[in-house]
Amino acid sequence: MAQEKGRNLSEVQARIGASHNIHDLDRKLQFYGRWAPDYDQDVAALQYRAPRLAVDCLTQALPGPPHAALILDVACGTGLVAAELQARGFLQLHGVDGSPEMLKQAQACGLYQHLSLCTLGQEPLPSPEGGLVCLTTRANPSNLQYKEALEATLDKLEQAGAWKRLVAQTVDHWELATSPLEGTRAKDGFISGIIYLYQKQRSP
Ligand SMILES: C[S@@+](CC[C@H](N)C(=O)[O-])C[C@H]1O[C@@H](n2cnc3c(N)ncnc32)[C@H](O)[C@@H]1O
Predict the structure, then answer these.
(1) DSSP-based three-state secondary structure for 2
(2) Suppose 33 and one of 59, 101, 157, 168 were both cysteines; which one would form an S-S bond, judging by CB atoms 3.0 to 4.6 Å apart?
């Protein structure tokens, strides 16, 4: 992916919007791999608020102090959620992502104690028992297929007794839409997203 700086909003919207038509997981992960070096500046242009919203949700749901919680950041990308977590006092952070290039960026941010290459839905997640698992995705119609597949995977993990759902919360003002067609719930040009929090269960 090109490294040019200072892309304007419409360029970013076109690039990210095109990726929303990729439904095959391997191709999606390849797209993320090419995007990794530019990801942070592109999502900033899109006014991406998911990390802050996810950590708001986590803070509200947490039974104890943040420093005592072990958080597994699933699909951690470059580490934007970790930056938000650290700012709110969360210190034990593990991350997984299906893209090696994204993990390289996450490693560079220096906030995770452990990072693993792992594709959710294809292999077990490497995390200690009892940790909290945080995942997010877009909740607008253009992401419906991915969201449904993700939820099917989460349901299987819960039915198998591996994870227990704490929260599944839809939130507005996730990020700017990449096109006017992106969703009927778009408010002020923003689309919605969803935050999932799970507690990893101890093995029977
Ligand atoms: C939109 S980015 C979000 C990254 C980060 N959570 C954030 O808020 O900035 C989506 C990330 O999910 C990863 N990803 C997508 N599907 C995945 C899967 N099935 N397993 C693991 N990682 C996945 C991609 O590689 C990418 O880093």
Answers:
(1) coil
(2) 101
Q: Is the CB of 196 under 6 A from ligand 1?
A: no
Contact 77, 97 (CB under 8 A): yes
The number of helix segments (H) and strand segments (E) in the chain equals: 7, 6
Closest CA to ligand 1's atom 8: 51
Each residue's pLDDT tens digit, 130-147 = 889 999 999 988 899 889
Half-sphere exposure of 192 (CA within 13 A, CB side): 16
Distance from residue 16's CA to the centre of ligand 1 (Å)? 14
Question: How does residue 2 score in pLDDT terms, banded at 50, 70 and 90?
Answer: very low
More confident residue, 7 or 122: 122
Atom nearest to 122 CA in ligand 1? 19
Side chain identity at residue 170, one-letter code? T
